Each structure stands twice: as structure tokens, then as C-alpha cells.
Amino acid sequence: MTKVTLIAGANSLTSRLNGLVEYTQQVLMDHQIQTQVIQVHMLPAESLLTADVSDQRLQAVTDQVLSSDGVIVFTPIYQGSFSGILKTYLDLLPQKALADKVVYALGLGGSKHHLLALQYALEPVLKELGTEELLQSTFATQDQVIKNGSSFIVEDSVKQRIDAQIAQLSRRLGHVEIKEVARWEKIV
Fold first, then answer.
1. Is residue 160 part of a domain?
2. The domain spanning residue 168 has which CATH number?
3. What PANTHER family would the database entry show (predicted)?
């Protein structure tokens, strides 16, 4: 079965970023793709900060990433860049951990002024980790993800962009049947 790991670089479960994580996970399940979520802030802080790659919990989540067919990275945008929590985890991954995987990044920022933070800050790091198939990133602003009690409401325009990229991810993973291509015929 196709597996995709979602890496969330928020600093809490109540972050609006988790609205994007939840919605994306639901779309993946609709495509019948198995998902697993890594909430980086819940990993052992001392092991992350001291780069203790021998920590069993860090090894387990790294093994999840390595055994995945695809990886989706979620980050809040702070000061025009992705989160330090996420960077700390990405630094612990093996050098080519994202090779042979389809990778997609989503960011949530306070305003559209940070629209290019994913392309200029996060994507180069993902490429350095071996990413060859990087889908177009999706950026949303905080007013497009609304907290509603213990759940989130994601604006339709953001949902449409996520849906399009997940459909692309699914096709690239070979999960969706590819339509038969017409063959050339000799016409006499």
C-alpha cells in the first residue's frame, strides 16, 4: 500500500497549521493512501537539540520517513522562514532521506508577504535532502484556516489547491490508474 508521511513543524496541536494537516490527511485517505503524522514538537526535545540520532523515538520516526513513498512537510512561517522546530528535525535526517519520494510542502503565514518563504527557504533544504520530485508548494494565510472549537475550517480556495496537489502526488506515486495512451498508427 502507498504510504505518505506528514511532517508537521508547528509548536502545538492547537496551531492552525494542524487544520491544513488534518484536511490533507483526509484527502489522502480519500485517495486510499495510508498516512502517518509526525508532530515534531512532540519528539524528545533534548535528543532533537543535541542531534542524538541514537534516540529510539527519533529513529522510529526517521524510519517512517525512509519507508514512505511520499512526504508532505507543513510549516508555520515565522520571520519569513520555516519553523526552527522543523529545521531541527530535518537536520537529523540522513543526507538523501527524501530521494525517490514525491515531496510536497505547505506553509501557513500571517500575511501574503511571506508567500515566497517556502520556495526560498524550505525547498532548498528539501532538495538538499535528495528531493527530485517536488510538487508546487501551497501557502495559506492564517485567516484562511479558522479555529472552530477543537476543529478547524479551511477556506475553499485553499482546499482546492491542496486537492490539486494531492491528486498530482497520487498520480506521481502511481496510485491512480493512468489512462491508456493512444499509440501511433501507420496511416496509408
1. yes
2. 3.40.50.360
3. FMN REDUCTASE (NADPH)
178 within a domain of the structure (yes/no): no
Rounded to whole angstroms, the Cα distance separating 151 from 145 reads: 10
- Report the candidate in 124, 97, 118 with the shortest Cα–Cα distance to residue 106: 118
**pLDDT at site 175:** 61
Domains: count for the chain: 1
Mind giving me the DSSP string for 69-103?
Answer: SEEEEEEEEETTEE-HHHHHHHTTS-TTTTTTSEE
Residue 177, pLDDT above cutoff 80: no
Is 179 among the domain residues?
no
Query: The cell 520530485 sits on which residue?
Result: 133
pTM of the model: 0.89
Q: By three-state DSSP, how is residue 153 classified?
A: strand
- Quote the pLDDT of residue 78: 85
